[in-house]
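Support request, please re-run this one:
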Amino acid sequence: MAQQKSSVALHDAAEAVRAACLRAALDGYERAGLSGLCEEGRWEMVVDSIQSLDVDAIVRELPAGGRADSTDPAQKPVP
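Re-run finished. Output below.
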């Protein structure tokens, strides 16, 4: 039973990180486009946005013992 809870917690953490990466990528791409960067520059901004994620903030936002929020990741602000 404890192993199952641990597996669920790890899955929830992985889902939260994936959602944060998606939010960061979409936000970085849009910000770069609004700044007038070319396609290559936009992708560089995407990579930088993902590399700059605050993983500790993502972990702090995870509910203790609960499921990660499953709302549209594009609608949530990047930590």
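The chain has a mean pLDDT of 84. Helices lie at 2-34, 39-51, 55-61.
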